[in-house]
Specification:
With 81 residues, the chain is mainly α. It folds into 2 domains: 45 residues, no CATH class; 35 residues. The chain contains 3 helices and no strands. The protein starts with 9 loop residues before the first helix and ends with a helix. The model has no long low-confidence stretch (mean pLDDT 97).
Length: 81
Amino acid sequence: MPQFEIELSDAAHNGLQRLVMRYNADNGTALSVEAWIHLHLRELAVQDEIVRAAEDLQRQAQETAAAALQAERQRLLESVA
């Protein structure tokens, strides 16, 4: 497995620590800066697949909602027939 080593300035590390603290607070996690970087690099590696999955799920949700709305429309129309 490839391994990488990076150097960060203190200012960059401090900025990342603030981001990680906010991320942890928002997500109920306790990631270190290193773990946060690792997570986000892995997310970037599969970003295209994530976008495709989100688009597919949104399309499916819209189709389901449209079908449910049509069924409800029909039910309401039949209730006043």
